[in-house]
Design a protein that fits this description.
It contains 15 helices and 20 strands. It starts with 7 loop residues before the first strand and ends in a 13-residue tail after the last strand. It binds xanthosine-5'-monophosphate.
Length: 520
């Protein structure tokens, strides 16, 4: 468990789809919080975590079902403010002696309006000023009898106890979801809750940076750390932060597998070696990777070859660093959250994501993960705080297997060269039109077909390519970006004029699902 913040709020997760949004709202208020699944939060966990306040999230189960999730007993005896949301509200009432029922007239989904009842509730400061408040409901059951000590402060047509509170114990319970956008005054409710809980709202990136630097020094001591640097935002920010903490005790390894974009290797090496004066091994392993990939066209085989070679190469170079005991990784908070699975079914592997999990054990290394507490946009804020240029911080994600998965079918050097050129023109177009920051990810894929064209008076027989650009919040779902026809036409013309080897340009308008972002 981390010790980076003294004042911490605990979110107990009962499996709601929007639990992460609760954390977002709190982080926006500069309050440090952690989400933990209810199964992990027992009384001893609570004692160790020592939260200043607790939020019980929503969830898909019904408290009327035997064996359904409950909060640990001490949640209600610690003496700290507790806010129960939806399922959290229902389990709170049940555990404190109230009643929940399901059946006809207990459900409410979507927009609802809550009318005030009684006033003077601090958590509702700023509410009901102009009448009833819009909230977002998503419940099958509702509370039918409140626990002793509670009073009603808001009602909706199907939730007579939409807002209740026990003022003497600082327990608050709402049936709706204040964390979602469709509860317009939801952010205000969280603001009031953290204020009445005594949070100072002083969890800033500057404070995080200072605390993490000290934490890294304490963890590493005088030992050495190695860090796989890809040039992506996460590993770059992690490397700069660790470098600030321990200087030359850090060595970064940048593996060039020959599947990088135009100018990428030089950019990353110059940036970190020359500007940051970091110890950096530039492992030029293009021959090895492209040699092993020769003749391979199956997507999973390609991914597996790259993943394995990456680990081999990394290990080979890491072995040359004397006394390395730690491996740095840019793991983010969403990767850390153990989500509560209610479905129980194993999920299907769509793609073998390239990762170096397993490497620390294999090499006997301990992990340094200074970004474990952060969301992606917070990593960017930390990067800015550390002085990384915007061109690095705002970069679109780039997958570990690189251009290999943007070159369906067999990978050849000429195809990779064509792809690099086309991609550079496309990104240049996007930047020139001021669209880069509106797009989650944009790239070109070179297709394994050649088509006939006419240029000047001659026949051409060259490759076709596909442009891809998507909007997304987390890469899990995505929609294609609605470029104007003018933009697409201009870009196609530029690519065909400027890139030898391509005579046809298409635009991929598949969303995810059913497509994926990458082509392989
Ligand atoms: P897909 O293609 O699965 O991609 O829709 C979702 C996001 O993940 C990135 N991606 C990867 N990132 N190693 C990575 O580090 C990988 O093997 C990998 N495969 C896909 C992809 O670029 C997109 O942002």
């Amino acid at each position: 468990m981390t010790e980076i913040a003294q004042d911490r709020l605990l979110i107990i997760d009962f499996g709601s789809q929007v639990t992460q949004l609760i954390a977002r709202r709190l982080r926006e208020l500069n309050v440090y919080c952690e989400i933990h699944p209810y199964q992990n939060v027992d009384n001893s966990f609570l004692a160790e975590f020592s939260p200043k306040a607790i939020i019980l999230s929503g969830g898909p189960d019904s408290v009327t079902r035997e064996g359904s999730p409950r909060a640990a007993d001490d949640v209600f005896t610690l003496g700290v403010p507790v806010l129960g949301i939806c399922y959290g509200q229902q389990t709170m009432m049940t555990q404190l002696g109230g009643k929940v029922e399901s059946g006809h007239g207990t459900a409410e989904f979507g927009r609802a309006f809550v009318a005030p009842k009684n006033d003077g509730l601090e958590i509702l400061d700023g509410w009901f000023v102009e009448g009833d408040e819009q909230v977002w409901m998503s419940h099958g059951d509702h509370v039918s009898e409140i626990a002793e000590g509670f009073d009603v402060y808001g009602t909706s047509p199907n939730a007579p106890f939409a807002i209740t509170a026990d003022l003497s114990r600082h327990f608050y319970a709402v049936q709706f979801h204040p964390e979602v956008h469709h509860t317009p005054k939801g952010a205000k409710l969280y603001e009031n809750f953290v204020k009445l809980s005594g949070f100072k709202g002083n969890w800033t990136m500057g404070a995080y940076r200072e605390k993490m630097i000290q934490a890294i020094r304490d963890q590493v001591g005088d030992k050495r750390v190695i860090c796989g640097l890809s040039g992506g935002v996460d590993s770059s920010v992690a490397a700069v932060l660790i470098h600030e903490a321990i200087g030359d005790q850090l060595t970064c390894v940048f593996v060039d597998h020959g599947l990088l974009r135009k100018g990428e290797a030089e950019e990353v090496v110059t940036m970190f070696r020359d500007n940051y004066n970091m110890q950096l091994i530039h492992a030029d392993e293009q021959e090895l990777f492209l040699g092993e990939l020769e003749g391979q066209s199956d997507p999973e085989t390609k991914r597996k070859i790259i993943g394995k070679l990456f680990i081999d190469v990394f290990q080979k170079h890491a072995d040359t660093i004397d006394g390395a005991e730690f491996l740095a990784q840019g793991t983010l908070y969403p990767d850390v959250i153990e989500s509560v699975s209610f479905s129980g079914g194993p999920s299907v592997t769509i793609k073998s994501h390239h990762n170096v999990g397993g490497l620390p054990e294999k090499m006997g290394l301990k992990l340094v993960e200074p970004l474990r507490e952060l969301f992606k946009d917070e990593v960017r804020a930390l990067g800015r705080e550390l002085g990384l240029p915007d061109s690095f911080i705002g970069r679109h994600p780039f997958p570990g297997p690189g251009l290999a998965i943007r070159c369906p079918g067999e990978i050849t050097r000429p195809k990779l060269d064509i792809l690099r050129e086309a991609d550079a023109v496309y990104i240049d177009q996007i930047r020139k039109h001021g669209l880069y920051d509106d797009i989650w990810q944009a790239f070109v894929a070179i297709l394994p077909v050649r088509t006939v064209g006419v240029m000047g008076d001659g026949r051409t027989y060259d490759y076709a390519c596909a442009l891809r650009a998507v909007t997304s919040v987390d890469g899990m779902t995505a929609d294609y970006y609605p470029f104007s026809h003018e933009f697409l036409g201009e870009t196609a013309t530029r690519i065909i004029n400027e890139v030898e080897g391509i005579n046809r340009v298409t635009y991929d308008i598949t969303s995810k699902p059913p497509g994926t972002i990458e082509w392989e």
